[in-house]
Amino acid sequence: MGTTRFGGEEAATMMAELRGTFSTGKTRSYEWRVAQLRSIVKMLDEREGEIVEALRSDLNKPEFESVVYEVAMLKSSCKGAIKELKQWMKPENVKTPILALPSSAEIVAEPLGVVLVISAWNYPILLSLDPVVGAIAAGNAVVLKPSEISRATSSLLAKYVEQYMDSSAVRIVEGAIPETSALLEQKWDKIFYTGNSKVARIVMTAAAKHLTPVALELGGKSPVIVDSDVNLKIAVRRIIAGKWGCNNGQACISPDYVITTKDFASNLIDTLKQELERFYGAEPLKSNDLSRIVNSNHFDRLMKLLNEDKVGGKVVYGGQFDKSQLKMAPTLLLDVPQDSLIMSEEIFGPLLPLVTVEQLHESFDIITRRPKPLAAYLFTNRKSLKDKFVRTVSAGGLLINDTAIHLAVQTLPFGGVEESGMGSYHGKFSFDAFSHKKAVLYRSFIGDAAVRYPPYTRTKMGLLQALMGGSILGILRALIAALFGSSGKPKTA
Amino acid sequence: MVEERDSSCLLSELRETFKSGRTRSFEWRKTQLEAMLNMLTHQEHSCFQALDHDLGKTHVESYKDEAETRLLFYPAKAEVIPEPYGLVLIITSWNYPLQLALEPLIGAIAAGNVVVIKPSEIAPATSSFLSKTIPLYLDSTAIKVIEGGSDTTQQLLQHQWDKIFYTGSPRVGKIIMTEAAKHLTPVTLELGGKCPMIFDFPSISSDLKIDMLKRTVRRFYGENLETLKGMTRIVNKFHFDRLRGLLKDPLVANSIVHGGSYDEERLYLKKIVESIEFINSKPKPLALYAFTNDESLKTRIVSETSSGSVTFNDVLIHCLCDGLPFGGVGPSGIGRYHGKYSFETFSHEKAVLRRGFFPDLNARYPPWNTFKLEFCRVGYRFDYIALILLLLGLKSFPKES
């Protein structure tokens, strides 16, 4: 890619161009939006091979994950939007109260204007373009800033997005901190950020200067509670699929740590070992089905978690690594100290600590003591435990008897709470995230009630109170009072 | 002014209350809202009854949203469950000091939160009323009023809140959002802006319009300042001076055609189209009003301008329509409330997906191969025929690369 500097001036110029495009009204038309969404699908169809290559280069991501979790999910999101867009764009009729009659009201969805999407490195195709799908569906002009850490994918997006889509309204800006800062100085109508909570604070602070609304998709420590009363083999497979099967644990909704009873722990660990070997072989560093660690910074970070005093000795499986290739094997740890780094920070890697308790209900305290995560998981057949889990645990989303897949259900909002984020998207929620829902009230000139206007009198007030109270008796009483006065005697002329 | 120590204590108490789970029960919420109703009835402000009535009916149980789930995940049950954020801060404005404090409070309680209200110090009588009266009617271990000025607000903002609801000016809105960003606290900001009003009276001279306005104003409010009835005073000297300053501006002074003791700005444009352009050149307002019977103009206004809301042929009344969200866009605000939107603005919508253990599809699990890849690809497309053919070995798939 070229070395043209992208600073404040370039950002301002680009913003002016995009605002110009938006003000022509082009992006509002249904046809334009559908055409853009179709061109994303076309790009994914025609460039799939290159996308898989770029993801291999950036993350050593297995082809299966690239095709199923990035490309197919994205295509499905586009197609869903294309199918539902007409419905989403329709105004929603709303009832009006007796006081406002005669009138009609509706809620009209309109685009916010020019929006910024800042994406992450772990699912660089999905997390870049899925929010863009929402932005376009809602009729906005959009700038996408892919993560510089996933360099090959960033280049691919820069090369193809403006080629396939309408570059007068959709732009890619590559770069790192300086470029992102230049972008954040501009006044956006919405900023959609996927990443970590530290940078999220910087994004929201920059947004506050312009009163720009934000959506922040962050992460957290997603716990998994495993009850003894389960089909263990299937539970374990699903945990593995959600953890190491998702970018080798580098996913915002990856199971971060497991809680189970002391009695059940050895069963669970044995089954985990068994299935891990079945999936990745006896030498997992040689498996083609595991992503590598994205870069040496993150590799060192994970090694630090592993080598902390009183933690390293708790490894019960795995622990192999190869720094030169940035590879790390699935690793299980048992009962590390609660105040260790690995139990305080989001792991975002192939290490899985298991915490044991006497009774399973103790797990709730362990979870609620920590910041609210993006996801929380429970494996059980017991209804009482399911109910307690849903009632007690607050997270972006909860999943019972599986991991990770809830983000594929487009009818569920996907987003966090507190440290794990704000706002949500997927399906119609994406459309809503990038729309302003404008209230529109149509009044007629007929039926103008003098009761509203000054000079204000007690009688008028009484009648208004009754009308707003909505009780027929109250209205009648007030009307009588108006005609006859509160004494009950008819008023004299 | 509240001592730093005191506010920390107060907030700890509130967090303890929230943790106990008491505010989450339907009974507690109903009791509080009923108590608020009593409070308002005894204090003769029963115009809030309608709003309270609506919100009290809000369903606090989970509302189910049966989702269409894909073959790979079938059977599964999906739902969205609203839950309270926790500790909520409501900072109110002075112009409708009672309503702007209590209406968000209703939403916060209905959603099951614990609350601190910081009423505006510029309306001291109302602030004092709230501070004295609320503890008499509502659960004071869950709902507290903290009085004070901007120092108090600054101090409160240093703490971690789970949600902040602010009504007031854009300038202060930015300060609040900046402080909220430090804790990633979600905010609802109900701000303001210049609400434009479009009059479309075809081929009526501008003089006639003014005469009508003058006559109506005289009828409502009386002839001169001394006998002015039914009009609110300007709230304090700061704002009075500010408004007087606006009037003194020579450009504005020349366009005053009536009175001079209140601020009016009228602009006459030859074509109505210019008014749309003019409005769009200014920051997006909280409300836009248009008086017209022209249907195509109405359509143009709705689709070509942006504002928190649009009302045709009336003003302000959209605030009373609980089915309509009330909130701004751009500099006029973030978020919305009224009616069920009040409940939603103080709730986190938690996604919940439940699965059974069967069926469990092998295709998800490594080691991956081309068959499994094709299976998932096809499954995503809901291409059930292809799926069956694949399973029966009758469908070919791309060779292993």
UniProtKB/TrEMBL annotation, chain A:
Pfam families xref list: Aldedh (PF00171)
Entry keyword Oxidoreductase: yes
One Gene Ontology cellular component: cytoplasm
Keyword Oxidoreductase: yes
Stored InterPro entries: Ald_DH/histidinol_DH, Ald_DH_C, Ald_DH_CS_GLU, Ald_DH_N, Aldehyde_DH_dom, Aldehyde_DH_NAD(P)
Catalytic activity: an aldehyde + NAD(+) + H2O = a carboxylate + NADH + 2 H(+)
Gene Ontology molecular function: any one: aldehyde dehydrogenase (NAD+) activity
Family, similarity comment: Belongs to the aldehyde dehydrogenase family.
Record protein name field: Aldehyde dehydrogenase
UniProtKB/TrEMBL annotation, chain B:
Residues in Aldehyde dehydrogenase domain copies: 76-199, 270-352
Keyword annotations of the record: Oxidoreductase
GO function terms (MF aspect): aldehyde dehydrogenase (NAD+) activity
Keyword Transmembrane helix: no
Gene3D superfamilies: Aldehyde Dehydrogenase, Chain A, domain 1 (3.40.605.10), Aldehyde Dehydrogenase, Chain A, domain 2 (3.40.309.10)
GO cellular component: cytoplasm
Protein name: Aldehyde dehydrogenase
Originating species: Carnegiea gigantea
